[in-house]
Write a structure and sequence with these properties.
Keywords: 4Fe-4S, Iron, Iron-sulfur, Membrane, Metal-binding, Repeat, Transmembrane, Transmembrane helix
CATH architecture of the largest domain: 2-Layer Sandwich
Structural class: alpha+beta
Organism: Heliorestis convoluta
Number of helices: 7
Strand content: 15-25%
Shape: globular
Cofactor: [4Fe-4S] cluster
Order of helices and strands: EHEEHEEHEEHHEHEEH
Pfam families: Fer4_11
Number of strands: 10
Protein name: 4Fe-4S dicluster domain-containing protein
Helix content: 25-40%
Bound molecules: iron/sulfur cluster
Length: about 260
């Protein structure tokens, strides 16, 4: 199956937040009232009911005038997703079309996916003990429609298509914007097995809180290859121990019963 991806050209984004609203609308996520924090950013962070948002970075330029940078944030549907590896309950899987899919009924809300995601994307609903994040509009893309966010984007800052094609478009766009944005960077072509959302950023990734060289944390290997198997072994050991104790107790009872019969 063809791996699909989005290409998000931040040089074309006007921060209208249409994608943020379209995501809420299509996925029927309830609105949430935040508090004004003195910036144009609408909310502080992603949440179990907010799977994408536009982050604002405000600063003054050399003439002392306010300038804004912004970036669309949501799950990047990594080629090698740490969240899938970290989940102890098989509640996250990588689909052939590139989506990192959540299997809600398997999720126990433990939060390992959020801890180990290099972008801190998954959010846990503590009441329901379930994790939520962008689904890559699986129901739409499975029916040959594009995701709601790319469909709604008024400036075509978000494009959707086969990943190879998105990489080609991204590389072409980079050439065209370099005169205006000398520090323009492509992000996501090779990182973490190739991301399912490739950015064209006007500046360095760190300016948008994106790690320059994202890696799965070393402790993830420890968690997956040592701690969780040890936990399973310990559990298996406990089960075997309990079974052994039950067997002994049953044997003793039988022997007592046998003794009584022989009395
Ligand atoms: S809809 Fe497009 S232009 Fe508007 S905020 Fe989203 S990515 Fe930017
Ligand atoms: S961005 Fe985070 S939540 Fe999304 S696939 Fe990658 S590791 Fe998983
Ligand atoms: S792909 Fe769908 S779920 Fe993900 S941010 Fe876009 S609209 Fe929301």
């Amino acid at each position: 199956m063809t791996r699909m991806a989005r290409f998000v050209d931040i040089t074309q984004c006007i921060a209208c937040r249409g994608c943020q609203v379209a995501c809420k609308q299509w996925n029927q996520l309830p609105g949430e009232i935040g508090s004004f924090t003195g910036t144009y950013q609408s909310h502080n962070n992603l949440s179990p009911n907010r799977w994408t948002m536009i982050r604002y970075y405000e600063h003054k330029n050399s003439e002392g005038e306010m300038e804004w940078d912004f970036v669309k944030q949501c799950c990047l549907h990594c080629g090698e997703p740490s969240c899938v590896k970290a989940c102890p309950n098989d509640a996250l899987r990588k689909a052939d079309n590139g989506a990192v899919v959540t299997i809600k009924e398997n999720c126990v809300g433990c939060g390992y996916c959020e801890i180990y995601c290099p972008f801190k994307i998954p959010k846990i609903d503590q009441r329901a003990k379930k994790m939520s994040k962008c689904t890559f509009c699986l129901g739409r893309i499975g029916n040959n429609m594009e995701p709601a966010c790319s469909k709604t984007c008024v400036t075509d800052a978000i494009l959707y298509g086969p990943r190879d094609e998105m990489v080609r478009v991204a590389q072409e766009r980079l050439q065209t914007v370099q005169g205006q944005y000398p520090k323009a960077t492509l992000y996501g072509i090779d990182e973490l097995g190739g991301l399912g959302m490739i950015y064209l950023l006007p500046d360095r990734p760190s300016k948008y809180d994106l790690p320059e060289n994202p890696q799965a944390p070393l402790s993830l290997t420890l968690l997956k290859d040592v701690v969780q198997p040890a936990g399973t072994l310990a559990l298996a050991g406990t089960v075997v121990g309990l079974a052994g104790a039950a067997l002994l107790s049953w044997r003793n009872e039988r022997m007592k019963g046998g003794d009584k019969k022989n009395d």
